[in-house]
Amino acid sequence: MSRRGLFGLAIGAGAAGIAIGAGAGATAGVAVGRARAEDAAASVYDFFGAHQAGITTPVQDHLHFASFDMMARTGRDDLVALLQDWTYAASRMTQGLEVSATGAVGGSPEAPPDDTGEAQGLAASGLTITFGFGPTLFELDGVDRYGIAAQRPVGLVKLPSFLGDDLQPDESGGDLFVQACADDPQVAVHAVRNLSRIAFGRARLRWSQLGFGRTSRTTASQATPRNLFGFKDGTANILASDSAALDEHVWVASSDDPVWMAGGSYLVARKIAMLIETWDRVRLSEQDAIIGRDKGEGAPLSGGDEFTDPDFTATDASGAAAIPATSHVRLAHPEFNDGLRILRRGYNYVDGNNDLGRLDAGLFFLSYQRSPEQFVRLQRALSTDVMNEYIRHVGSGVWAVPPGVQPGSFVGAGLFA
Fold first, then answer.
1. How far is Cα 365 from Cα 362, in angstroms, rounded to an integer?
2. Which H/E stretch holds residue 378?
3. Quick one: angle between helices 3-18 and 24-42, nearest 10?
4. Fewest CB within 10 angstroms: 101, 149, 238, 409, which?
């Protein structure tokens, strides 16, 4: 049994001893919780397929996101070789294996090991690794560094400025991104650490972000999580089982340009700082009105339960709209955005304290869509969102996410055909 398993048993035994007076129910709860944790650790998702994993895959509990820039004086062959090396390593790590056959301890003792070793003995824990290409990979300062500028998707450009933007250059953009999601944070960190190591001399880490506590769901079996404002988040997200919605709103079609992106998607990442201390002083009724949902159950203020469709014509006892016109739910709803939808896959984050001694915390927003224009239109629709008073967008990026990898090939191979 692994050290983590022994640690879990010790915690469980201690908890059972403290709660013995509560009866057998507590013991059963510990057993169920442990079984769920074991199931999560045992989860393995195939790296190969029509679409990259980590998009519609059941959202895991932990994230390590990393943005990379290619190094100066690298060429097309360097980029292709890096993507091939990353593909090989990712295809192994997502199956619970080390980055190579020799791994952390199987090689020469006189040479650095291929694998950094911190995931030895750990299961795959549902690890998915997703890759994508930023606008600057295709062209930087007017230079076509890798001979792929002609293949850049028309919509793959730097996002326009939005109300509330306070973007930090060192937390925005990048030639490449790696998204590692897992149910064990060490497994996710191990993946990015080793991919960074493999990239040495060819690409450098530009910025990265750790995330915990998913803020969306992609399957009906997943309970709706809560964000750091305490509200359920992602109730109306597109689910993996809704193939029609995915084809319409998430996956690039074969009829879209360019052809090499068919089966892929586009990722928008936004680091959104939440003004936690200010929000915590807002009355509950006002918080509900800002969101447009009940904080406890997550039901729309027009009535029903969490999954009841909002009724924007409903009024309260005073005759005012039950769901305010400036609420987040109304402004983001497809009914008021020509049916536009996106697939959300964000995470909470806490990066310690800021210079004012306040929590440096918020939402690391991730959305996948068939075109970046979908995000742009929705974000502009939120310009009158009252919630903007309590958030600041401090990081941003957009990337083209190639289709899934076939065995024997590598991620993004169609771009270089």
1. 9
2. helix 372-381
3. 160
4. 101
Place of tokens 């402004």: 331
- Taking the C-alpha atoms of residue 343 and residue 382, their distance in angstroms, rounded to an integer, is 17
Q: What is the pLDDT of residue 22?
A: 44
Omega cis (within 30) before 160: no
Least confident of 33-37, 69-73, 268-272: 33-37
Half-sphere exposure of 143 (CA within 13 A, CB side): 8
Residues 6+ apart with CB under 8 A from 224: 217, 232, 233, 234, 235, 298, 306
- Using CA atoms in the order 190, 193, 197, 198, what is the torsion angle rounded to 10 degrees? 60
> Which pTM was predicted?
0.90
Q: Return the residue matching tokens 């326009």.
A: 160
Q: What is the bridge-based pairing of β-strands 347-353 and 343-344?
A: unpaired
pLDDT confidence of 41, banded at 50, 70, 90?
Answer: low
Contact assessment for residue 289 and residue 372, using Cβ atoms and an 8 Å cutoff: no
Banded model confidence at residue 164, pLDDT cuts 50, 70, 90: confident
H/E segment holding residue 248? helix 243-249
Alpha helices in 271-345, H assignment, sequence order: 276-279, 284-291, 328-332
Tokens describing residue 21: 């007076």
Residues 6+ apart with CB under 8 A from 84: 410
Query: Is residue 25 predicted with pLDDT exceeding 60?
Result: no
Cβ atoms of 98 and 92 within 8 Å: the answer is yes
